Amino acid sequence: MSKSEKEKMLAGELYLAGGTELAADTKRISEWMDRFNSKHSRSQEEYQQLLAEGLGRVGANVHIRPPLYCDYGYNIEIGNNVFINFNTVMLDVVKIVIGDKTQIGSGVQILTADHPRDPRQRHKGLEFGRPITIGSNVWIGSAAVILPGVTIGDSAVIGAGSIVTRDVPAGATAFGNPARIRRKEY
């Protein structure tokens, strides 16, 4: 039995992103983003309920300032006491895991979606995803870009405007384009 495009996507295999099979998921999250991003003031109960409805797992005391943009939502797992500032993009074709007490600045992009290097495969509309894991107590500065497959260890710091192309170990400070480890404190 062959896998569906969604099953291939979730497994990190090549899949057709523009196919009709994922259209219902895309419609669902688009409607959710319209509701989430349209109102900045709401009760804490309404806010938590809306986050739980749109995202895969949301811990206690999570605060995400709209607008937030994502592909599907159900592949995003957020720990407790996480703060995510305005205008964050999470392309979640596979898992994005964010640990407890992490702070993410404005305009950060967390991108699991990747594309084949072979132009013939790209021409067919194929893509794939590589998961991203962000540890606990991480600070990611504004406008940083986290590329597919990256793991950022606990208590790491990512400088504003950095392009993170490789894993960052726990306790390290990394910045630049591409981001490089500048010091390891813990």
TrEMBL record:
GO terms for molecular function: acetyltransferase activity; O-acyltransferase activity. Keywords: Acyltransferase, Transferase. GO terms for cellular component: cytosol. InterPro entries: Hexapep, Hexapep_transf_CS, Hexapeptide_acetyltransf, Mac_dom, Trimer_LpxA-like_sf. PROSITE patterns: HEXAPEP_TRANSFERASES (PS00101). Belongs to the transferase hexapeptide repeat family. This is Maltose/galactoside acetyltransferase domain-containing protein. It comes from Zygotorulaspora mrakii (Zygosaccharomyces mrakii).
